[in-house]
Amino acid sequence: MNLSNATRRALLASAAAGVLTACSSGAGMQTTPAPVIAPNTAQTDAHAAVSSDKKTAIPTLAARPNAAQHPNHAKTWVSPDVDGAPRLLFISDYGADAVDIFTMPAMKLKGTITGLSSPEGECTDAKGNLWVANTGLQEMLQYSRTGTLLNTLSVPNEYPASCAVNKTTGDLAVSNIESTSGPGDIMIFKNASGTGTAYSNSSIYQYFFLGYDPNGNLFFDGTDSSRTSSYFAELPVGSGTTKTIGLSGATLHFAGMVQWDKAGNYVALGDQQCGGAPAACIYWVSVSGSGGTVTGTTTLSNYQGGSVCDLTQGAIAANGQQYVAGADYETCGYTATTADRWRIPQAACRPTTTRRRASWNPSALPSTRSRS
């Protein structure tokens, strides 16, 4: 089936080693993340990593209109000092069939894993190893943080799009955007091995992103078959049945990142069309039963001060390093494509209506699409 669609958003798949944390919440204090956070105008480490359409029937979150395929035929390279780096950011480039490795928080390009087939979402395990959804070949690939292939899991008749690891059990959860015969599903591989067990949700046809909380509950999102309605859902720990979570306080227009904020006990839920416009934001969702309350919204600005178009799977740093990292494929044509980090000031963790910004350097990536 050919699923090319000019309305699709770009997938920027990124994963950072470490647990999720954003703002610390004190006793009796409601946490409200920063309204706006932005990088500065400096650009360094130019590197081509732009997502694009495949001229195949592979379903993708990364389809881009008017963008050329540009496979990276170079050999895999990784700088030796990556092994000692405390924190890394991995960004998959669907169009180049590659994954780029950046050190954090400096955003220095330190390697590129090549030879993949339409790679999309990523996640890391408790040892810091990387799992990549190698969508084109219907498989999950595990790499060491230094780029050595460690394991391959087959996902037959499915198109894996993203993943999450239960750091307590070692289980690998994979979201399959679609199958060769129709709708996708969520697949759990016990101990990240063997044959996965599939779970589905009646509201969702295409499954996008997912993330575990510390108790083993798995949250995920996706769209209906038309990609016009998005849904947020959960597979509770120990259950064989998923449930749709109704949101209050915001509308999920187009499913984006799903991660757990350990410090604030939130799900960080991304929206690729915040407010119905081509701009990315993050909702901080407190879940209770089948309901989710959006307690705050963080919008992101690009290095020119405009809207970030395509931060779809950002990573929020651990160990007190309060920043969001990821990239903006800029299918909207606002600016050049960049890999960025945005700081979340501690002051943003307090209830406030003050608009606050923090500046950090992005790594500029040349865009293949002219501005519109």
Helix-strand blueprint:
Elements: E1 13-16, E2 36-37, E3 77-78, E4 88-93, E5 98-103, E6 108-113, E7 119-124, E8 130-134, E9 139-143, E10 149-154, E11 158-165, E12 172-179, E13 182-189, E14 197-199, E15 206-212, E16 218-223, E17 230-235, E18 243-248, E19 255-261, E20 266-271, E21 281-288, E22 291-300, E23 315-316, E24 323-328, E25 337-343, E26 363-365
Parallel strand pairs: 2-22, 18-22
Antiparallel strand pairs: 1-4, 3-6, 4-5, 5-6, 7-8, 8-9, 9-10, 11-12, 12-13, 13-14, 15-16, 16-17, 17-18, 19-20, 20-21, 21-22, 23-24, 24-25, 25-26
Quick overview:
With 372 residues, this protein is an all-beta fold. The chain contains no helices and 26 strands.
Distance between the ends:
30 Å
Give the helices and strands as they follow along the chain: EEEEEEEEEEEEEEEEEEEEEEEEEE
Whole-angstrom Rg: 18 Å
- Shape, per Cα inertia axes: globular
Helix run count:
0
Q: Strand portion, in percent?
A: 35-45%
Binned, the helix content reads under 10%
Number of strands: 26
Which residue ranges are poorly predicted, with pLDDT under 50 across at least 5 consecutive positions?
Answer: 1-68, 346-372
> Largest beta sheet, briefly?
9 strands, mixed
- Derived structural class: mainly beta
Mean pLDDT: 75
